[in-house]
Amino acid sequence: MKKVFLMLFLATFAIGSAIAQSATTAGINTNEVIVVNPLEASMDVEFIGAYGDASTGRVSVIFRVRNKTNHDKANFGGGVPAQTAAFDPRGKTYFMPDKVSSAFVDVPNGIWVEIRLDERRLSFSNVPETTKSFELINVATVIGNSSARGMVQFRSVPIQWGVVPE
Hints:
It is a single chain. By secondary structure, the chain is mainly β. The protein has two domains: 1-30; 33-161, Immunoglobulin-like (Sandwich), CATH 2.60.40. It contains one helix and ten strands. Strands 1, 2, 3, 4, 5, 6, 7, 8, 9 and 10 form a ten-stranded mixed β-sheet that branches. The longest helix has 24 residues, at 2-25. It is globular and about 45 Å long.
């Protein structure tokens, strides 16, 4: 009887462990930023951080990309401000301050390149320091001559106030 009970206990533990592991690898119940990349065939994306400056109310976003295409230029955050936006947990939306038409940046094939949305015209403005995170950040992205375009998303993004990125 003890062996049967022990076997049932171990089986239950093993099943519970497998379910927990599956949930963790799927991005559920983690504190990591989730990256949604509709341009996966054209580039890899890794989130680095969101940095707030309380004195200006601006939040900069830094990530890196690795180009997989034969184009060597890309545009991140360009277009009209409504395309690139951040949404906080209270439902407030933050846009880039003015109509933005950022220049294309160099993204050589196969090499990781850091992208900084940190200039005055390429950061989120009027964000109060009480905002500790964004639920979602949408970044309008175009690779090359518009052959690959989409909205890269970062979900569950903590804002690091007073931290100056390197």
